[in-house]
Amino acid sequence: MKNRLPVIIILSLVIVVGSCKSRRLAKKGAELEESGLVIESAEYYYRALLSNEDNVDAKIGLKRTGQNVLDEKLSEFLSNYNNHRTDKAVDAYVEAKDYKNKVAGVGVRLNFPQKYKEYYKEVKDEHLTKKYRKAYKLLREEQFDKASGLCREIKELDSDFKNIKELSLEARNEPLYRKAKDAMAEEKYRKAYDLFEDIRRNAGKYKNTERLQAKALEKGTISIAMLPVKNHTYNERIGQAIESELESQLTQMTNPFLKLIDRDFNEQIVEKNKASLTAITSSNFSGLDPEVLKGANALISCEIHSFSTKEGNLQSREKKGYLKKKYTVKDSETGKKKTRTRYKKVKYKEYKKTNRVKCILSFKLISAETGKILVSDRISKNLQDKIHFAEYDGDEDKLIPGYWKYKNRKSDKDRKNDNFLARMQLNRLLNGDKKIKSIESLTNKVIEKGSNLVARKINAFNPE
User: Fold this and answer.
1) Which of 19, 254, 281, 291 has the most CB within a 10 Å radius?
2) pLDDT value, residue 321
3) Which of the listed CATH numbers 3.40.630, 2.60.40, 2.60.120, 1.25.40 matches domain 130-220?
């Protein structure tokens, strides 16, 4: 109940403040109405109701002045209608209707005679027909942007007018369709694919977009065969692990233009090209069996140059500090109790350990047709994990850092670091993580990160 009281008080204050503001705005509206400024008056009544919809004076005032404002807007519409100014008539009607809806939003209903709706329907058809003919003409003249703009205007007023939906789709998508076909002709299949995808999002089906997009995907796809990883280290497992992880990472890439060929195909390539695979370079690639390579556009060649691990020893170091204790004594003169502090010399221990794993590898994405290196890089991944913590057998909450020379007597070198920062640092060590990531865990992470980086660089390759 206590927690709810402040909330209730705040809400009450908000209501009171809102009511006061509403009354001030309504009073200003009444003054403007007396001065004959009806439009301005109606706006103040409206703002008063935004602050407090229960303001009766503001509702009555807006009902009166708002109707005058609406009647003026409808009068403007009727004048344009009678004088066959269809564009202005439509704009005036839309403005009047928007005003009616705005006022209705604060609970005031204005009279909007049915006859105006009938007049509007008549003039709207004439207005839209004129715009439709213009949009159609612009479309045939291949002024697609202007045609698309007019189609949007028509749909805002009547989304079902004639075949405006089809006209709008053509105005919007025909330029994209032509750009996509030009991209196909220039063998820029990825660009064409993306443009066709935009069309499909806009229109679903448009002309032969679906078939052409499939063709762009087929032409632009790079089918990759992954060669066995060359491992120049003494760790046999690392080569197999990186090969497996790289295959997994490439498979997870969402690039539709990247296709990884299965292991059976890779093994065929290796078996039939053992001699030439040992010397793949951008200038010496013609020795591979073309029958085996059929279906592969590119090969991934990956090498592990070095891999090292270092598991650290848990280092311990004895530290000196103080156990801080407070006690009370009675003052012999006043008889009042006083608090005193005693520092007892103690020892505690600090521990440190670091595990490290480092891997250096390189890769090449090589064209199976020309032997040209499409992408290559040398990657170094170095991960480590450290622990640094302290342990004390006694009451850790009372332990403070410091130094002392002699256990049982004082020295001018003794010091007590009894300050907030020093205590906080020691407390962090006392509560420090004592579990370190294993060499195996770090190795798996290095393999994952290194393989992911290779996969992302290959995935980012765009031949266009």
Assistant:
1) 19
2) 96
3) 1.25.40
Supply the mean pLDDT for the chain. Answer: 86
Q: What are phi and psi of 48, to 5 degrees?
A: -65, -40
Across 424-432, average pLDDT: 95
322 forms beta bridges with 345, 400
Which residues are within 8 A (CB) of 130 and not within 5 positions of it... i.e. 6 or more apart? 86
Q: pLDDT tens digits, residue range 274-299? A: 444 444 444 444 445 544 455 678 88
- Reference 90, options 154, 169, 40; nearest CA is 154
Residue 177, Cβ density class (10 Å: 0-12 exposed, 13-18 middle, ≥19 buried) = buried
Question: In this structure, are strands 222-226 and 298-311 parallel, antiparallel, or unpaired?
Answer: parallel
Say which residues have a Cβ less than 8 Å from residue 361's Cβ, sequence separation at least 6: 242, 302, 303, 304, 305, 378, 379, 450, 454
Burial class (CB in 10 A: 0-12, 13-18, 19+), 115: exposed
Strand, helix or coil at 329? strand
Shortest CA distance to 362 belongs to which of 280, 285, 306? 306
Nearest-10 crossing angle of helices 189-203, 164-185: 170
CA-CA distance, 150 to 14, in Å (whole number)? 47
10 Å CB burial of residue 66 (0-12, 13-18, 19+) is buried
Give residue-wise pLDDT tens across range 158-190.
Answer: 888 888 888 899 899 999 999 999 999 999 999
Domain ranges for the chain, please list them.
4-112, 130-220
Tell me the pTM. Answer: 0.65
Q: What are phi and psi of 131, to 5 degrees?
A: -65, -40
Band (12; pLDDT cuts 50, 70, 90): very low
Distance CA 229, CA 131 (A): 66
CA distance 25 to 49: 9
Q: Which tens digits make up the pLDDT trace of 52-111?
A: 888 888 888 888 998 998 999 999 988 988 888 888 888 898 899 999 999 999 999 999
Instruction: Give CA separation, 67 vs 27, 55, 59, 108, 110, in Å.
Output: 19, 18, 12, 10, 6
* Beta bridge mates, 378: 362
> How many angstroms separate the CA atoms of 362 and 377, rounded?
6
Contact status, residue 46 vs residue 70, Cβ threshold 8 Å: no
